[in-house]
Sequence to fold (636 residues):
Amino acid sequence: MSNRVDHFIGTQTKPAFLKKLQTVVEANLQNDQFSVEVLAEQMNMSRSNLHRKLKQTTGQTANQFIREYRLEWAMELLKKADRPISEVAYEVGFGSPSYFTSCFTEHYGYPPGEAKFRASDTDQPKDSGKGQSCRFKVPTKVLALVGLVAIGLVVLVFLVQWQATGSEEVGIREQSVAVLPLKNLNLDQEYEYFSEGVVQAINRHLSQVEDLKVISLTSTDRYRETNLSAQQIGKELEVASLLEGSIQRQDNTVRIEVRLVNASNGQQIWAESYDKELEDIFKTQSEIAEQVALSLKSTLSTEEKQVLTQKATSNIEAYDLYLKGFYEYNTYTRNGVHNAIEYFKQAIALDSNYAQPYSGLATAYIASASIFGAELTAFEGLQMAKPLIEKALAIDPNLVEAHTINAFYLLYHDWDFEGAERAYRRGVEVNNTEALALYADYLNFIRRHDKALMIDRRLDEIDPYFLNSRMIIALYYNKKYDEAVDFAESRIKVFNNYYTLDNYGFLMLNTGDYPRAIELFQQVMNIEGIRYPRILGWMGATYAHSGQKNKARELIDELEEKLATNDAGSIRFFMAVIYSALGDKDTALQWLQAAYEEHEMEMPWLISEPQFYNLHSEPEFQQLVAAMGFPAYSAE
Fold:
């Protein structure tokens, strides 16, 4: 077959790197689970280094390289024989025939069904007008020659630089660290929550040091039971050093052993053992963080030293209860949220001047009112949270978690977009992962999709395995559909949870792969046996678009029944979603007006919800947008 690399840079100038890349992709051609992560692993490279080298050599991302190689193979198959398009799609590694057809048409300028009847010179990429991922056909031989020369120069520069460095690990920041889970030496795992709390505190302290890059704990947690070497972990996380060790607690006595190692060679940089009373845990956590920072030659400002030594509470029992609440909340289950609420309340009862349990309790109440909690109405959850947020900030005006949840309140309760942005930025400035994720949502609300993607990429760098990543949605809004699918497929292998399935289903619904969307939405509801209003709304829209209007109306009936007994979950908003997908604009607008009047939590998504794009020019819709105070909005 005519191979894309040969076509653009010629077989004589192709470096060994590209030859190997081509071999790996071809060997996985029929594997629809083949992803950039798998490609990078088989190339013995990190994803970022693979991306950088491929970009320098061909101007492509790894996603584009894989996809276009598959499409060229598909072209050869379609031209040789009459074969069903679905069969060809699966043979070249596309899990969805509709997605294959979309990609093929964008790449070549015509659908796959016409491939056999086109002239031989039409099997080159066309300019689809979308400008997303397919290379366009160069209009003249002169420009084609210039392109070949330019790419040849890029290859030459790349080879010289590669040979000069002699390393694939260029770009790893020296002052970067990942705090791995401490091995809990308590055999009964009774103190697992305590072990995780200590790690969280150390990581939190280190994150306050401005010139340190610190990987988030959700990404390091996957190495809890790993047999990988320090070099392998460092390479995967792209950090220069790792903090590892063990912890054992016996009643009020704690023993912690830690060591800082060089991730490139596994050599020890610093190590220490601590045998302390439980009441000394705050000082111990601070000492460990400070020693790590100094060992990595970080300069600590006076303010940073003060943060490291700051003591949140003098009541060790209250601290212990807070750690239990934090541990339970991070299970991201309804039961976990319920348990967290009780632990946070108990911690506050023991120390009414302890800021973090107030912030944690506010967050838990809002989670109960969110679209995946769906137990409290938006107003109930937000109003219960407000005095707790105010108390937390009164005790500790610099508490990032409190500013983040306050931003959420300002946005979802007050519809104060400017105030919410200011509050979110308090967390964004220190790379707080929750603040980054919620700020990305905010940016998508106001259609600053390009900046939302920048924030999501930043979050992905800090926390590659963040449970509630917004990357799929951000890629969708920026029309990077192939990259969004690749990200979703790679993420679903690690986190087959509500968040991933929800976002992936959203992507499939709005890119037209309706069978896959239905499958994903059904998986969401099977996780906890809950028929979430949001998922029912999107599933109803999927049925409407796929011609199954009776099933869409059945879901409308189900939502109406829910509304009669439970007002939670933005039911009116998602009724509007289904009616809009059915083409019933008047009824959709009526339900949106009702959602506005009831202040449903999903309303900030009003102008970015794709199912409402057909309503944007309607006067009633524009009145809702104006009433909510969206900044700088104009109908498309």
